[in-house]
Amino acid sequence: MPAVFEKFGVRLMYPENWQVIDLDAEGMPYSFTLQSQETAYWTLYIYPPGHEVRPKVKEIIEGLEAEYKEVEVIPREEMVGDAKTKGVDLAFFYLDLLVEARIRTLRTPSATLIWHYQAESREFEEREPVFQAIAVSMMQQLVPLPE
What burial class does residue 48 get, using C-beta atoms within 10 Å of its C-beta: 0-12 exposed, 13-18 middle, 19+ buried? Predict the structure, then answer.
């Protein structure tokens, strides 16, 4: 049975063997991270409606580039559930492991959402359906703004 996270106007389901860590309820953005027992994690940043997403996406990318140096960044649009999201796909090496990451953004009438998820490439491939299911469960509670 999946666990349920419900805070900050967001409700989503996630694997019961994952943990909620880095919960930040001190002003905007609200954020939290769901951590697997391995390398996978999924982080959500919740901003007020209409918040500009580019600076936060750039900040996440720059943080990865500062730590891992060569980060491949590919702009993407993707349907998550019934919502069209924008963001980037990322790849970089940590030691001798390839790490894959995604950043996605969505504006809704109630919030601007930015989520970032990543894992070592073999685990990423296994966890991609889980990452997507977390986002889709979140989307089922939200109403996206029209494009």
Answer: exposed
Q: How far is CA 22 from CA 17, 53, 73, 94, in A?
A: 16, 21, 25, 22
Q: Domain total for the chain? A: 1
Whether 80 contacts 104, CB under 8 Å: yes
Tell me the residue range of the domain where 52 lies.
3-111+120-139
CA–CA distance, 110 with 132 (Å, rounded to integer)? 21
Residue 147 in domain = no
Q: Within a domain: residue 146?
A: no
* Tens digit of each residue's pLDDT (9 = 90 or more) over 46-79: 999 999 999 999 999 999 999 998 999 999 999 9
100-127 tens-digit pLDDT: 999 999 998 888 999 999 999 999 999 9
